[in-house]
Amino acid sequence: MECTIDWGGPDGMLFVARTGSGHVAAMDGAPEGGGNNLAPRPMEMMLTGAGGCAAYDVVLILKRGRHAVTGCRVKLSAERAETDPKVFTRIHFDFKVSGRNLPQAAVERAVRLSHDKYCSASAILAKTADITHAVTVLDQAEPETSSQ
Q1: What is the arithmetic mean of pLDDT over 103-119?
Q2: How many Å from the N-terminal Cα to the C-terminal Cα in the chain?
Q3: pTM, whole model, 2 decimals?
Q4: If we measure between CA atoms, which residue out of 130, 135, 124, 40 comes closest to residue 91?
Q5: Predicted confidence (pLDDT) at residue 8 exceeds the cutoff of 90
Q6: Under the phi-then-psi rule, with left for phi > 0, alpha for psi from -120 to 50, and beta for the rest, what region is 11?
Q7: Residue 20 and residue 4 in contact, taking contact as beta carbons nearer than 8 Å
């Protein structure tokens, strides 16, 4: 795996990442840090990666178990150390998984497997952060709101 990060130049703190798989992502800083707030912060991207990794695992585990999963949302909230390096010290994953006749136990098992065995991003972050999870299973008949 590889990536290349290029700085956007002297007028800010915009960085563009090009991944080995051929994708592009931008990162920027807050104005008080010299950025122009044009893209997510690098640490937000790290947290996003952990959420994406875990959600990917949960959906894949449920699909492989032949469960009728129709949606998966995970909201992460995190705290960071007050001094440098400002590592994550606490991360909470709040999963909302929807499907038809989706057993609560199957979803909880998928979340546990992701955390304990499969999610590389969570495993790395768990070296400094206390990681917790909450799981809500929504029947497909229940409308899932898009509020954040």
Answers
A1: 98
A2: 33
A3: 0.90
A4: 130
A5: yes
A6: alpha
A7: no
Whole-angstrom distance, CA of residue 11 vs CA of residue 43: 21
CA 142 to chain centre: 24
Buried b (16+ CB within 10 A) or exposed e, 61-74: bbeeeebebeebbb
Percent of the chain surpassing pLDDT 90: 94
Question: What does the H/E/C string look like for 16-52?
Answer: EEEECCCCEEEECCCHHHCCCCCCCCHHHHHHHHHHH
Q: Which token pair is 21?
A: 């798989």
Q: Cβ of 95: how many Cβ atoms within 10 Å?
A: 22
Distance of CA 23 to the CA centre of its chain: 18
Is pLDDT at 144 greater than 80 in this prediction?
Answer: no
User: Is residue 140 very low, low, confident or very high in pLDDT (cuts 50, 70, 90)?
Assistant: confident
Contact 107, 58 (CB under 8 A): yes
Position 146 scores a pLDDT of 58
